[in-house]
Amino acid sequence: MDLKILNPEIQQFINNNLDKNIAQLALQKNPFPEIEWITILNQIEAKTKSKDKLPHWFTAKNIIYPSKISVEQTSSEKTASYKSELVSGESLIDLTGGFGVDDFYFAKKIKEVTHCEINPELSQIVQHNFEQLNVKNIDCQSGDSLEILAKSNSKYDWIYIDPSRRNDTKGKVFMLKDCLPNVPEHLDFLFNSSDKILIKTAPLLDISAGLSELKNVKSIHIVALENEVKELLWELHRDYFGKTNLKTVNIVKKNRETFEFVLDENSIIPEYGLPEKYLYEPNSAIMKSGGFDEVSAFYKLKKLHKHSHLYTNSAIISFSGRIFEIENTISYHKNEMKNFLQGKQANITTRNFPETVESIRKKWKIKEGGHHYCFFTTDENDNKIVLICKKITS
């Protein structure tokens, strides 16, 4: 960690060049020969990426940033804030501390937080930044977190862990055993130090695969930000042996769309029906959950088809996702397409349909955009249909 980067003139230069083209800046002569040019460029690029994602860090003075990849991989403040609502108590140890965004929010709920980071330089940077952010209840320790935990005589209220996928697993099915640390392998060891474990994984992890590798899973949280799934959170309680609760959360501006259900082997039988007045499209968190029949039962909506994952009714209701008014339902045939859509402008979505959006646009010369939303899908009678809609809520 080179503290010369905190020189007021260098900091001013960094702030003056945010959002600038880094490749073009790299061709310029370094105006500060006392520090490497690449170091300054990295600060510009990393701080630019933190503007919307990490507003507390972006607006604070004398913050030092790690590599841009570390900033890209860290939790956003919005998802970190959500995670902090899941924990409570006196102590928490984070075994994969990283840039420390999650711990910043854990420290608002937990009296003592331990931040473990194997990279000594990153650990120093995080400790420095916590001082600038006036956070006093986080202890930064550098080294192998499992060794730190083994040497500690403490019993923690929570263990938090965000395992990273090993580089040699590219192209393989994403499994927790392929990550560092290997959580399934060390689970009994971890439960010796805490009764409660919170694990963050990438959305790529299949929920059934995660459940097959873990035990004592009380809850799974699927967290989306502006309808993009960002992370899965696994709550493990040592003495819990019941069914797993699954909660979906879509953080949209200042609001949250939530939906939850219990994972149960007894399947729910949904009601099916042809398109009525309104169409409901679940948000991305619900889509990741696989709780499509549960959505139908909870909201009392009819499913268009077993595999379409679109819903309908005749009276508008509050819903975790997008709502559309169906203006027309047409068969996917040449004459209907020519009359209603060929050469027009529309937003296209496909659900349980044999053609891609790109092929549909090319085939029928449909321009992108406009006020109409067209869903190419399959109804309960296995007919290929197109629902021409206008959006009511996003």
TrEMBL record:
Residues 278-317 form the PG-1098 ferredoxin-like domain. GO terms for biological process: methylation. One of its GO terms (molecular function) is methyltransferase activity. InterPro entries: PG_1098_Fer, SAM-dependent_MTases_sf, Thump-like. Transmembrane segments: none annotated. Keywords: Methyltransferase, Transferase. Pfam families: PG_1098_Fer, Thump_like. It comes from the Bacteria. Residues 321-391 form the THUMP-like domain. The keyword Cell membrane does not apply. This is SAM-dependent methyltransferase. It comes from Flavobacterium alvei. The lineage of its organism: Bacteria, Pseudomonadati, Bacteroidota, Flavobacteriia, Flavobacteriales.
